[in-house]
Amino acid sequence: MYNRALIFTGAAVTGRRRHVDCRETLVRTVAEFAIRYHQILDPNGKLVGALPAFTRAAGELERMYRLMTLVRVFDTKAVNLQRTGKLGTYASCLGHEATHVGAGAAMRADDVLVPVYREYGAQFWRGVGMANVLLYWGGDERGNEFEQSKQDFAWCVPIATQTLHAAGAAMALKVRKEARCVLTFIGDGGTSEGAFYEALNLAGARKLPLVLVVVNNQWAISVPIAEQTATVTLAQKAIAAGIPGVQVDGNDALGVRDIVAQSLDKARAGEGPTLIEAITYRLSDHTTSDDASRYREADEVKDAWKIEPLLRLRKLLVDTGGWTDAKEAALKADCARQVDAAVETYLNMPKPSIESMFDHVFARMPARLREQREQARRNGAANGHSH
Ligand SMILES: Cc1ncc(C[n+]2csc(CCOP(=O)(O)OP(=O)(O)O)c2C)c(N)n1
Ligand SMILES: [Mg+2]
Q1: Which end of the chain is more exposed for a tag (fewer CB within 10 A), N or C?
Q2: CB-CB contact of 180 with 108 (8 Å)
Q3: What sign does the dihedral 237-239-243-247 (CA atoms) show?
């Protein structure tokens, strides 16, 4: 399709008259795009989209709600543990529960999850223990040993690098012709990194079985999304890589699970990757080392609480599933018991040995590191410490 357009070749302002030297030419629109926004359950707990098939399985919505509640109880406890000196720095996921649980629930057990550092909901759905998370943030690498999902990757703090690992893993699955997919998360800030674009490009070029979920929580530590990028949506960053990009209400667990499941199905059928921008809000500080009140308006946070993810799912369960105050109270008590048990496991774990800090980096440890490892062991023993 050709559109008439004016091409300006020069302009000058002389006195009160403006001379514009221009010629008319023809331009062709070679690409256009639109970004879809997916939502099933609105902030008031009203269904605004068709109910996906998974909601028909008995108790499935309740299962999602139960896990989202557990994540929140766990999260509060983890922050308290850090405040009382029993945990290192911790990254809260307060407000992200729908995105994490929705994405985790959409995956198959043998898919590969490549997390960042706060996707506990997806991990718990896949069987990772709460004690693992505590061990990790307590500085113990054994937290990264996932009994139920050994193929999943470890937490990844260097921003955006996990997207390259994920693309690599997806490439391996494709080369092996396995009908499995990789799902990775990335933050809104992470999408400014070069690694992210490299991963997207490779995924598009090789049609990899990869689903990238951007958790747009509006903040990258103290940098708001408006200062992070000039793009209207983060989903459209996919377009340049030749892959579909879509937005979803990241506080709507049903919408997230539905769109992630559709994208995984496509990837499994050999139809390539998808970028999903899940729009949510970081209700917490960035980590326990941060104080967001120094750079964020209290009113913004207050407004975000009105559209948080648990409220609306609870409302739906009350309206349609016979959820009651008594059930809610029993759930909270059960979550507290489960979290306390995980804390006990964590606190009673024998400390790792000093030399274990050298493990888990190289498949074959270089001689230089082997020497240092031995030295650390000897020094520790000489000073009466084995851990
Ligand atoms: C390569 C790299 N640069 C900087 C940092 C420091 N850092 C840690 S978290 C973070 C912000 C990430 O924001 P976003 O991607 O939006 O994720 P969120 O923490 O909001 O989930 C930064 C800059 C890092 N970990 N890695
Ligand atoms: Mg962010």
Answers
A1: N
A2: yes
A3: positive
d(CA 330, CA 345): 23
* CA–CA dist 259, 240 (Å, integer): 21
Handedness of CA 180, 71, 310, 65 (dihedral sign): positive
Determine the distance separating the centroid of ligand 1 and the alpha carbon of 345, expressed in angstroms: 30
Entry pTM? 0.92
Length of the chain (residues): 387
Determine if ligand 1 sits within 6 Å of the CB of residue 314. Answer: no
190 Cβ below 6 A of ligand 1: yes
Q: How many CA atoms lie within 13 A of 56 on its CB side?
A: 4
Give the integer Cα–Cα distance in Å for 7 and 24: 6
The tokens for 39 are: 């939502």
Q: Atom 25, ligand 1: which residue's CA is nearest?
A: 158
CB 103 within 8 A of CB 183: yes
Residue scoring higher pLDDT (359 or 367): 367
User: Do 229 and 180 contact (CB within 8 A), yes or no?
Assistant: no
Identify the band that residue 361 occupies on the pLDDT scale cut at 50, 70 and 90: confident
pLDDT for 14 equals 40
Q: Could you give the residue numbers annotated as active site?
A: 282, 286, 295
CATH architecture of 36-347: 3-Layer(aba) Sandwich (3.40)
